[in-house]
Amino acid sequence: MKASTSTASSAPAHNALPPPSVTAGRSSRIAPHSHIKGLGLSSDGLALGDGAGFIGQTNAREACGVIVDLIKLRKFSGRALLLVGAPGTGKTALALAISQELGSKVPFCPMVGSEVYSAEVKKTEVLAEVFRRAIGLRIKETKEVYEGEVTELTPAEAENPLSGYGKTVAHVVVGLKTVKGTKQLRLDPTIYEAILKERIVVGDVIYIEANSGAVKRVGRSDAYASSYDLESETYVPLPKGDVHKKKELIQDITLGDLDAANVRPQGGQDIMSVMGSLVKTGRTEVTDKLRKEVNKVVKGYVDQGVAEVVPGVVFIDEVHMLDVECFTYLNALLESPMAPTVVFATNRGNSLVRGTTDIVAPHGIPVDLLDRCMIVKTDGYAREQISKVVQLRANVEGIKVGSGVVERLATEGEKSSLRYALQLLTPASILAQLGGRGQIELEDIGEMNELFLDAKTSASMIGEGAFASG
């Protein structure tokens, strides 16, 4: 390995931990699809060259753009989207981009086909649970609140009736100010405890719910804003209107959350109830009867205009891993009135449907379910597209590359796969750091190829008997 050598006294032991860095900043994890921000389409639905972090796959992106429009118009129910293509051609990235296009509040539930084979619950239960978690419910609530800037915070003390020592808070007087006026409130001592917990002081903007007594600190009044360019405090304007007002609050939950809350009701606060809840860690199956009851309540809320159903996206990767029972159940789930958008992905051609001995179907999916799917094909990447993806990933991961490195990685990607080329980036940067270089050079890529093998090379070596023991 071409690492720079140093004197024996300064060299750390092989297993020694590296010295702590001076700047202890928190680095966020870089996921394989961190660079995908959307489908990257123009206003008329045409794919841009490299928009929203997406490179290539022009036809597939435009097709997915049409699907997104259908979902937004609520006209995609009862159907599914099937993404087919070779490994590493961006099927998962397309599914993620669809969810990004629909919005951050839309539930996105990814799973792999083999997840259904759980030892704790039935296969159909796993699928039903994922589908329920992908259906959001936006509940609008109108609450009476007291809102304003705190002008006074005075606890009134009284003698403790339980003992002769010390005093206890009898009530607390809170003054609140808005643009329209001021109001003085006399509040319960339990609300004073909530105020202390939120660390509220004079000058903070707060709101107190009239029914529950819950206290929420919004921020510091902008009248106290200082001239600093950067500080941790959030400054908010003085609330408008009266101190006592009705406010609309929006809460987002999923049907899966409602099912879970009802299937395992909370016990008492005694130690046996707490211990019992800790022991029961296994997954609990939700009965159809309970789901129907939840649906009935949700329908009542929707009819009253209190709630709105937000269908999300279920993404099932490696869908050929499901068996014939799961496919039959998926047919029923797709036809349910509150079905989310379903996206499948597979890299198989004609293959045997799992759970059968003689049914060979395209992509390993029964024909009756394929009829419900709109199929989008992903294409392989050309060399110039691979070089663009490599450069984009290097920027996302904060890796500097020397001249000719991107082209060399693009050649590797064309020869083996795009994934292999991207996987070489970070190890090569570590090798460059060991060599005392600030960026990856061609020699680092050459050494990577000595250390690691791509799938095709490894398979050919096995075929030639290179790994056979002598």
TrEMBL record:
<dbReference type="InterPro" id="IPR003593">
    <property type="entry name" value="AAA+_ATPase"/>
</dbReference>
<dbReference type="InterPro" id="IPR027417">
    <property type="entry name" value="P-loop_NTPase"/>
</dbReference>
<keyword id="KW-0010">Activator</keyword>
<dbReference type="Pfam" id="PF17856">
    <property type="entry name" value="TIP49_C"/>
</dbReference>
<keyword id="KW-0547">Nucleotide-binding</keyword>
<dbReference type="GO" id="GO:0006281">
    <property type="term" value="P:DNA repair"/>
</dbReference>
<keyword id="KW-0234">DNA repair</keyword>
<comment type="function">
    <text>DNA helicase participates in several chromatin remodeling complexes, including the SWR1 and the INO80 complexes.</text>
</comment>
<dbReference type="GO" id="GO:0006325">
    <property type="term" value="P:chromatin organization"/>
</dbReference>
<dbReference type="GO" id="GO:0005634">
    <property type="term" value="C:nucleus"/>
</dbReference>
<feature type="region of interest" description="Disordered">
    <location>
        <begin position="1"/>
        <end position="29"/>
    </location>
</feature>
<protein>
    <recommendedName>
        <fullName>RuvB-like helicase</fullName>
        <ecNumber>3.6.4.12</ecNumber>
    </recommendedName>
</protein>
<feature type="domain" description="AAA+ ATPase">
    <location>
        <begin position="77"/>
        <end position="367"/>
    </location>
</feature>
<keyword id="KW-0804">Transcription</keyword>
<dbReference type="GO" id="GO:0016887">
    <property type="term" value="F:ATP hydrolysis activity"/>
</dbReference>
<dbReference type="InterPro" id="IPR042487">
    <property type="entry name" value="RuvBL1/2_DNA/RNA_bd_dom"/>
</dbReference>
<dbReference type="GO" id="GO:0005524">
    <property type="term" value="F:ATP binding"/>
</dbReference>
<keyword id="KW-0539">Nucleus</keyword>
<keyword id="KW-0347">Helicase</keyword>
<dbReference type="InterPro" id="IPR010339">
    <property type="entry name" value="TIP49_P-loop"/>
</dbReference>
<dbReference type="InterPro" id="IPR041048">
    <property type="entry name" value="RuvB-like_C"/>
</dbReference>
<keyword id="KW-0067">ATP-binding</keyword>
<feature type="compositionally biased region" description="Low complexity">
    <location>
        <begin position="1"/>
        <end position="13"/>
    </location>
</feature>
<comment type="function">
    <text>DNA helicase which participates in several chromatin remodeling complexes, including the SWR1 and the INO80 complexes. The SWR1 complex mediates the ATP-dependent exchange of histone H2A for the H2A variant HZT1 leading to transcriptional regulation of selected genes by chromatin remodeling. The INO80 complex remodels chromatin by shifting nucleosomes and is involved in DNA repair. Also involved in pre-rRNA processing.</text>
</comment>
<comment type="similarity">
    <text>Belongs to the RuvB family.</text>
</comment>
<keyword id="KW-0805">Transcription regulation</keyword>
<dbReference type="Pfam" id="PF06068">
    <property type="entry name" value="TIP49"/>
</dbReference>
<dbReference type="GO" id="GO:0003678">
    <property type="term" value="F:DNA helicase activity"/>
</dbReference>
<keyword id="KW-0156">Chromatin regulator</keyword>
<dbReference type="InterPro" id="IPR027238">
    <property type="entry name" value="RuvB-like"/>
</dbReference>
<keyword id="KW-0378">Hydrolase</keyword>
<keyword id="KW-0227">DNA damage</keyword>
